Amino acid sequence: QGKYILTPSPITYAEEQLFHFFGQLLGIAIRADVPLPLDLLPSFWKTLVGEPLDPDVDLQEADILTYNYVKKFENISDETELEALCAEIASQHLATESPDCPNKPCCKFTYPSLTGEEVELCPRGRHIPVGWENKDVYAAAIRSLRMRELQSPECMTAVRAGLGSIIPLQLLTTLTPLEMELRTCGLPYINLEFLKAHTMYQVGLMETDQHIEFFWSALEMFTQEELCKFIKFACNQERIPFTCPCKDGGPDTAHVPPYPMKIAPPDGAAGT
After folding, report:
1. Residue 159 CB burial class (10 angstroms; 0-12, 13-18, ≥19)
2. How many domains does the chain contain in total?
3. 255 in a domain, yes or no?
4. Among 61, 71, 120, 136, which residue has the least CB neighbours within 10 Å?
5. Residue 212 domain-assigned?
């Protein structure tokens, strides 16, 4: 999906400090209401707020190949299908020959990690063939491996520690994963109506002025990519907040950066 996850591997002290700083950046983004353009999988936000991962949905989002692989083993109805599947996997160089039948391909209790290393799914897994009796255990072990990798406890502990140095972690219990993502990252697209509602006109300009109407008409013809470039030019950031304190406050409630966006006449003498 073109999204990122935390690399699920042991981390050095220097990397732990970087994750800690990353958590601080998340906290600053929330407190300052300046969104970070982060495209992280939902599993990251679920783990951050302490919500358990869905072994079906989150696996499918993070690793569709492994999800399909596990489903094939879970949906096998007889030993003939299992042999055919092992033969198919053998043709992709993911299986070895069965010790009982040298010419019969089989899978072992190993599987590649997200970083590409071959991992034993149980003690002595390299020497345990997958058969009809243990195929479900094999599929569950692969699913469990991916869930542990997506939760990435070492990395996430450092991120939460950094976040907790900026905002109280107790606040996370009041937010859903989606709310946490929106508060931190804003919307991945530019809501032009929201931008228009948070624009101020200075020194006698009005929203009904012809050139102001031309301005908004031009923006309405922009693609999302072009609107993002405009926000980058006007506000020096890639996303806008998805909400503003003025939504729940009075008319004098302070806006958050980059609002209100100001449109003013040019400096110098009046001309055509």
Report:
1. buried
2. 2
3. no
4. 136
5. yes
Contact indicator for 177, 49 with CB cutoff of 8 Å: yes
268 CB-near residues (< 8 Å, 6+ apart): none
Q: How far apart are alpha carbons 245 and 242 in whole angstroms?
A: 11
**Phi then psi for 160, rounded to 5 degrees?**
-65, -35
Residue 206 included in any domain: yes
Count Cβ atoms below 10 Å from residue 109 Cβ, excluding itself.
Answer: 21
- Do 10 and 154 form a contact (C-beta atoms < 8 A)? yes
Backbone phi and psi for residue 223, each to the nearest 5 degrees, phi listed first: -75, 170
| Tokens (6 digits) for 156 | 């996430």
Residue 170, domain extent:
1-186
Q: Which helix (H) or strand (E) holds 120?
A: strand 118-120
pTM score: 0.74
CA distance 242 to 124: 51
Cβ atoms within 10 Å of 91's Cβ, excluding its own: 10
38-80 per-position pLDDT tens digit: 889 999 999 999 899 999 999 999 889 889 988 888 888 877 7
Work out whether strand 199-201 and strand 261-263 pair parallel, antiparallel, or are unpaired: parallel
Burial annotation 38-55 (CB, 10 A radius, 16+ → b, else e):
bebbbbbbbbbbebebeb
User: Do 270 and 213 contact (CB within 8 A), yes or no?
Assistant: no
Question: Is beta strand 199-201 parallel, antiparallel or unpaired with respect to 118-120?
Answer: unpaired
**199 and 209 Cβ atoms separated by less than 8 Å:** no
pLDDT given for residue 37 in this prediction: 85
pLDDT tier for residue 95 given thresholds of 50, 70 and 90: very low
The HSE-up count of residue 57 (CA atoms within 13 Å, CB side) is 7
Residues 6+ apart with CB under 8 A from 217: none
